[in-house]
Amino acid sequence: MPKGVTKRRPRTRAALLKAALETFAEHGFHATTIEQICERAGYTRGAYYSNFASKEELFLALFDEHSERVVRRLAEAIDALPAEEYTLERLAVLASRVEPDERDWYLVTTEFTLHAIRDPQAAWVLARHDARLRAEIARGLETVLRRAGRELTVDADRFARLVIALREGGLAQSYVEPEELPPGSLERDFLAPLLAASSREIGPDGARGPTG
């Protein structure tokens, strides 16, 4: 493959992903056509199919990109905390942050989730991507809790599912009633108590204190 083509490929892919997210959010996943995505991105169908085999593959690429960005932003914010601010309350505040563009992603991922509920093959594939994101969240939880002098007393993967449910369920309500429940409110109010109830203190030598 010519070097110029190789260098252009990441830019083409990024433009298609951006256009797809905007078009999916505007028209819906099912209603959006590949032609609409290509037109918005400024590329041909040939460029599209050299990067993605289907709309489903394109969505999953968006899913992975979004997951990596959210995890990275949160990790960077946590790493910037001074030692004295490693408290459950402070961690909950950081986890409750919702970016302004999150609404578009919520619309897209909710529609695809409904599609996956109806389609067993799509559900199987989405579950694999969900599992990778959950593993990152579980590892992150265990790491930040250790820095705060605590450890989980429940399964980390199951607790990650609870965190995701709190986030997604809260956003569903917030986007319907933004004034009554601003995005991130439920995490800000309830994540710290949930963490406290599902973890215990550990001493400098690894000795475990009482649960809660």
Task: Please describe the topology of this protein.
Elements: H1 3-27, H2 34-41, H3 45-49, H4 55-79, H5 88-95, H6 102-118, H7 120-147, E1 150-152, H8 156-176, H9 185-197, E2 199-202, E3 208-211
Antiparallel strand pairs: 1-2, 2-3
Question: Would you mind describing this structure in some detail?
Answer:
This protein has 212 residues and is mainly alpha-helical. Helices cover 71% and strands 5% of the residues. It contains nine helices and three strands. It has helices at residues 3-27, 34-41, 45-49, 55-79, 88-95, 102-118, 120-147, 156-176, 185-197; strands spanning 150-152, 199-202, 208-211. Strands 1-2-3 form a three-stranded antiparallel beta sheet. Strand 2 (199-202) and strand 3 form a beta hairpin. Helix 1 (3-27) packs across helix 6 (102-118). The chain starts with a helix and ends with a strand. The mean pLDDT is 90.
Order of helices and strands: HHHHHHHEHHEE
Q: Given the C-alpha coordinates, what overall shape results?
A: elongated
Give the strand content.
5-15%
State the strand order across the main sheet: 1-2-3
How far is the N terminus from the C terminus?
59 Å
Q: Biggest sheet, in brief?
A: 3 strands, antiparallel
Individual helix count: 9
Radius of gyration: 20 Å
User: Helix share of residues?
Assistant: over 70%
Number of strands: 3
Which spans of ≥5 residues are poorly predicted at pLDDT below 50?
none
**Mean pLDDT value:** 90
Helix/strand/pairing category: mainly alpha
